[in-house]
Design goal:
There is one protein chain. By secondary structure, the chain is mostly helical. The protein has a domain at 1-31. It has helices at 2-33, 41-61, 70-90.
Length: 92
């Protein structure tokens, strides 16, 4: 009975030791032969912020026209003037 119990404890300890050695070997190989990947969270966010601010500044400098061409703008002005004139004429 005592021999059987000591054999089980010995195998458990041996298994734990083998797993621990394999784990340490894996960590050593991983740290030695691979490159670390680091993410620069601060500078990437600053860069994104600057890009957004540049786009906003460019958008402020270039006014966006709802018209495709100058002719379209003139056509819209003429239609608006005609509408105003007809409305003014219908008022008694």
């Amino acid at each position: 009975m005592y021999s059987f119990l000591s054999s089980i404890i010995f195998h458990i300890l041996l298994s734990i030791f083998i797993i621990y050695c394999a784990h340490q070997l894996w960590n050593y190989m991983k740290d030695t032969y691979s490159t670390r990947k680091t993410k620069d969270l601060v500078n990437t966010q600053i860069k994104k912020y600057k890009d957004i601010m540049e786009k906003i500044q460019i958008a402020k400098k270039e006014p966006v026209s709802p018209f495709q061409s100058e002719q379209e703008k003139q056509s819209m002005n003429n239609e608006l003037l005609e509408y105003i004139n007809t409305e003014l004429q219908t008022i008694p």
